[in-house]
Amino acid sequence: MAFWEDWYNKLEINWKKVAIWAAVIAVVCGLIAVLVIAFAVFKPPTATANDAVLERFALAAGDPATNSTVSFNITATLSLKNPNIYRSISYDPLPVSLSFNGTRFDESGKVPGFEHAARKTATFNIKVGGVDKPIKLSAPGVKEFRAENETGKFDVELRLDTVMQYKGRSTKCPLVVICPLELQLADPEVAATAFQRTKCTILRAKKSGC
After folding, report:
1. Chain centre distance of CA 57
2. Residue 64, preceding bond cis, omega within 30 degrees?
3. For the whole model, what pTM was predicted?
4. Nearest-CA neighbor of 142 among 188, 102, 195?
5. Nearest 10 degrees: Cα torsion 36, 39, 44, 45
6. By C-alpha distance, which of 39, 51, 78 is closest to 202?
7. Phi/psi of residue 196, each to 5°?
8. Cα distances (Å, whole numbers) of residue 77 to 49, 52, 105, 120, 126
9. What is the pLDDT of residues 4-31, one digit of tens each?
10. Short-list 88, 95, 84, CA closest to 176
11. Could you give a single Gene Ontology term from the biological process aspect (predicted)?
12. Taking the chain, what is the end-to-end CA distance rounded to the nearest angstrom?
């Protein structure tokens, strides 16, 4: 009887050792996985349009439509997030362009280049405006503007084009940020105009290192 008790006790001790080693192996594997993600996986930034205000958007339709002009004042707040655990991202200057109905009407805005630390979110304001600026709309584009003007809501696309580079990599990666904005023409009698926070689309080069 004593023999079986001794054997059982030894078996119980061995199972405890197995459990301890299993836990150690799991922790080590977890650390390795984290390190692989941090150092070997490159995630592109994400972008969000947090706020936007349209104070003026007036079209002087031309004949032909491509001779039209537009007067506008737009302010937008964008956030760019670096989701990488370890790697920072550097950006060249980010020129800003605005389009209506697929037609660009402003390219005057620019966000300065900057170093984007890992796991950080950078927020910046963009303010653009102009009076009687050329907009080469098509006839259907003019019709669409008039239809949206009736509702006071305009669909405008905000786009940023730049080149980015991950820390520790030599590859320069073209990057495009596209934010579709539904802008409510601000009413001067109202203190604030609601804006629906919008996720932007990120387009990056499909090449090694990007």
Report:
1. 25
2. yes
3. 0.79
4. 102
5. 110
6. 78
7. -85, 115
8. 6, 6, 19, 16, 6
9. 555 555 555 555 665 565 565 655 544 4
10. 95
11. defense response to other organism
12. 69
> How many other CB atoms are found less than 10 A from the CB of residue 3?
7
What pLDDT score was predicted for residue 210? 83
User: The dihedral of CA 89, 91, 94, 99: what is its sign?
Assistant: negative
Q: Which two tokens stand for residue 6?
A: 């001794």
For residue 11, what is the enclosing H or E element? Answer: helix 2-40
Q: Is 206 exposed, middle or buried (0-12, 13-18, 19+ CB in 10 A)?
A: exposed
If you ran DSSP here, which 8-state letter would residue 186 be given?
P
Which is nearest to 67 in space by CA: 120, 136, 114? 136
